[in-house]
Amino acid sequence: MIRVGVIGFGYWGPNVVRNFHGMHDCQVVGICDLDPHAFHRASAAYPGVEVMNDSSQLLESTRVDAVAVITPVWTHFELAKKALENGKHVFVEKPFTSTSAQAEELIELAEKKHLKIMVDHTFIYTGAVRKIRQLIDEDVLGRLYYYDSTRVNLGLFQHDVNVIWDLAPHDLSIMDYLIKGKPQAVVATGAVHLNTHEDMAFITVYFPDDVIAHINVNWLSPVKVRTTLVGGEKKMVVWNDLEADEKIKVYDRGVQVGNPNGVYELLVSYRSGDMWAPKVDQTEALKLESAHFIDCIMNDRLPLNNGAAGYRVVKMLEAADLSVKQRGKLIEL
Amino acid sequence: MIRVGVIGFGYWGPNVVRNFHGMHDCQVVGICDLDPHAFHRASAAYPGVEVMNDSSQLLESTRVDAVAVITPVWTHFELAKKALENGKHVFVEKPFTSTSAQAEELIELAEKKHLKIMVDHTFIYTGAVRKIRQLIDEDVLGRLYYYDSTRVNLGLFQHDVNVIWDLAPHDLSIMDYLIKGKPQAVVATGAVHLNTHEDMAFITVYFPDDVIAHINVNWLSPVKVRTTLVGGEKKMVVWNDLEADEKIKVYDRGVQVGNPNGVYELLVSYRSGDMWAPKVDQTEALKLESAHFIDCIMNDRLPLNNGAAGYRVVKMLEAADLSVKQRGKLIEL
Amino acid sequence: MIRVGVIGFGYWGPNVVRNFHGMHDCQVVGICDLDPHAFHRASAAYPGVEVMNDSSQLLESTRVDAVAVITPVWTHFELAKKALENGKHVFVEKPFTSTSAQAEELIELAEKKHLKIMVDHTFIYTGAVRKIRQLIDEDVLGRLYYYDSTRVNLGLFQHDVNVIWDLAPHDLSIMDYLIKGKPQAVVATGAVHLNTHEDMAFITVYFPDDVIAHINVNWLSPVKVRTTLVGGEKKMVVWNDLEADEKIKVYDRGVQVGNPNGVYELLVSYRSGDMWAPKVDQTEALKLESAHFIDCIMNDRLPLNNGAAGYRVVKMLEAADLSVKQRGKLIEL
Amino acid sequence: MIRVGVIGFGYWGPNVVRNFHGMHDCQVVGICDLDPHAFHRASAAYPGVEVMNDSSQLLESTRVDAVAVITPVWTHFELAKKALENGKHVFVEKPFTSTSAQAEELIELAEKKHLKIMVDHTFIYTGAVRKIRQLIDEDVLGRLYYYDSTRVNLGLFQHDVNVIWDLAPHDLSIMDYLIKGKPQAVVATGAVHLNTHEDMAFITVYFPDDVIAHINVNWLSPVKVRTTLVGGEKKMVVWNDLEADEKIKVYDRGVQVGNPNGVYELLVSYRSGDMWAPKVDQTEALKLESAHFIDCIMNDRLPLNNGAAGYRVVKMLEAADLSVKQRGKLIEL
What we know:
The structure is a homotetramer. By secondary structure, chain A is α/β, with parallel strands linked by helices. Chain A has 9 helices and 15 strands. Chain B binds chain D through residues 47, 223-224, 244-245, and chain D through 47, 223-224, 244-245.
């Protein structure tokens, strides 16, 4: 039985509590939030769980095995560090930390203490992303060409971060999971319209073997779009996360290029066959993820989305942030 | 009565012929194509019009007042130059020329000879684009924030140009028409997967006053997308060119940022009101455009999409091409 | 303060409890369900509310002012009758009763006892339906032509009723609210494929002045559709309840017929103007409805969706049921 | 070489001429239309073909082997009869005739004269309908449950017929092709709003084995819909004819009903698996159909859509027309 304390009961925290609360091998022993409304909501929803507004109570408690840090990104490092120092495993909301240096320090600390870090890259546990990974692993898509994601809406502006740190972690963590090669460099462009933070950005990530990824994030779109194209040599995928059913469509479409017999002109031919929408597992992603966290602690396994994955995403965020502020300067990773 | 000769009867040429043929003040006096099939099709469709395979016949004929050059881009300069030298007005398929130097030379020549150049930026004559322009001119959108276009499909690969020169001229000419400020710089990223030309590219164009434009062009998309977002301070537009009706949707959505009373936190509020799909004029764009060309010749007016507009688009194409080959290097315009 | 007891905590009951629970002038004093799982869920969710499995405890309690009957339709009459006999106001899940005779008996009883009946026609409190009603009331649509609804999905088969009693009450109650004239007659066709109940049906309701309504209900559709067309002389509405935004689209489209100067041929002309998606109030319908119920009790007002409305819907259901079993025999109302 | 004369060069006639004109084994030897504009258009488009305004010239010519009658329905019988009497095969626009008695007379006449009748049920030659037929023939769908079609738009009002005769022939001919059993009876409801003809109608056709078909036709819809559901025991099809690609979607969805061990409650379970959009042949339907007509003449074969098919569709149209005028009276076939 793993005893979990959760810090942060704002937008996402209640989902984390609900999932850890619903597991057999796990017990939520404390919830912490500074905001009186969140405090009240937590008390009402979980009468049997201790609610507090001082995180030290959780971080230092001997009754806590693991701490979930579901707070703004600028607080992650201090809270996670303290938890690790006190011998607790940590589950940290994405993005992992504000800087890659912080991420490295936490990873080192966890290793020294033999503790687990899981960074909450929820999307890689969705049925849709696992299905795309399966299509890649089983070579259904063939050689990978590109990943192109549009993630725009009329957004919740964050006061402390720009749109890159707010929306891009989703795609960066998905790319980290789907694309085998190591990212080489980042180019990002964008603009600031309303305050001092970028409210829209266009991020290109270069991978080896001509694999290219592009992310379009925007807080100023009148419509919500969550569409990702994954192009392969054999097949191509359109993932529309806003569809209730048929989130994933696999197209038997492609291009062949030939140049036979020394003919001057290239012979380009197109293939346009069936489309197929595989059934996608509907299990709540966070449920699978939190179960995996508890399992990793109990059986001493390495989490799929461990500290290193969190570090890689933060590295790309840093690079994109640096690039966007220099009008698309190429940042090598 | 303006007598027009048309060079090129491939994919687009027949539309140009049909429109000039259908006008009162205009007569198509010759069609030229090297390809025997095109030659045959032209002869069958226009029994009364002379069809030939030597463009000199048209370019040098005293019976021709204007020449339409509807051929691959690398041939534009030579053909248009010869036409101008022979005292003929020219209507040139987009992109205007292969280089901005060529465009400048043609503009200069036309001025010296008092001849008209029109570059076939058809899209700016569509009901949709004219409606967006009207919404901007009448300040319905308010201060402009951005233009973001996705123009992807499983494409016709061109053998002589990359995806930028093939698909981006559409958006660049629309931007040239819609955005008041002068473009400052271009950043483009992309990749080559199948031969030696980029088959996908992501182009950012920086304008003054934090106006930013982004174009996503891709020949390797399994689905066809033609969607453009135009964001303004007051209202935002979604233009989906693949919709039969309701191509343009105007959203009464926006964001206000305030910071009253020295309060630390920004006050961000959202506006989410009605959506409105104005009726869009369905007149064939090329019909309006060709009529404008004839009118400009007959009444000595400056075409909206004159040589200078064509030059500006070629400048941006050159910059994007240069940038994509240097992994997103910023190219000042 | 109105004290409410709720019978039935299955699929819909929890929503009813949550809404009455959240109101100031109202207190949920008891929840009853025979099913042990429902009993357990109610106890866990509302620690402060008494949960029981014998409805008599609620129906006879002096601590209860009003009873909400959220149980299968065949139980409505007995439970509501007992509640009324014991001097309690009743809120009854739709459809009101299994027969119109039962509905009449309950209405009479309530009148004699000066008690309120509200039948849970939730849909008429949605922002979408209220907006359509407003468009009709303000004569935006002009003379009404038709109401045509498609309400199909791969369905929850009910064991006790057919698809008409399961899905048609929604549209019948909406029609009762939107269409001014009294329904005259019903024709219904349908088929039984899997057991002894109709699993698909097509219902026509004739109204005065050539207003016609049609409802397509189907438990065997592979896709879920919730689309209703409301046609008027001046404007036409498409209501797609599955859209997150833009549920209601108002089309400035129509037809004019003229026959001027004794000309033999009719002159038909079409109008195709703008489309407009008015913002629709997102307040939870059940919240407005339950507040209205409490208000009607406290201030002795007649509920909009009172027993008579419930009776009218049951009359149409009876007629449709009778008609479908006689292969479309016209049933006068 | 079959020599064809075409009567009627209005909306559909040009397509018929174009297809017969494009075939090797066939020659269009005459086009007839009373309308001067149609006459002019035909002359311009087919300089080598004789154009006339007196149909007798074609019907009596010894140079004509077959006549295509592409005129309003009320003229079909006289023209086709005269053609058959003169020893010519006939291709008749749908619906075949104004009455089933006329259809019978023509069929009898053709048999006596050993001539072919083809009724232009174009839709059964589309890739979509042929694919659905294949799915039925190969038992992919399993036992057929229903056919449910919505065919609505802001319509071309016909002056001589109501919406049933205008739009329903499409679905009735498709049903005649897809559904194996013989239609038993028809129930139709509808309304007249603008003149003396029904402008919307809802038609149910009963088939053996609980197969049911429903057609929703409407000239007063603000939006165009062309969607048909075909439900089977094993799989279900959604055919959206307005989609450019993916017209046909096959859903691995269904319902099983069991009643094991004398248990009182039925056990209903749902199956929700993959969706699959098979590639659909894009060949022009009319091209295949006209080739089949010529082949039937040359090789003395019975056309798929022969006079008998035309008769069956007219029988259903008559029944629907009779039923709608008697408010849904069941008409046995």
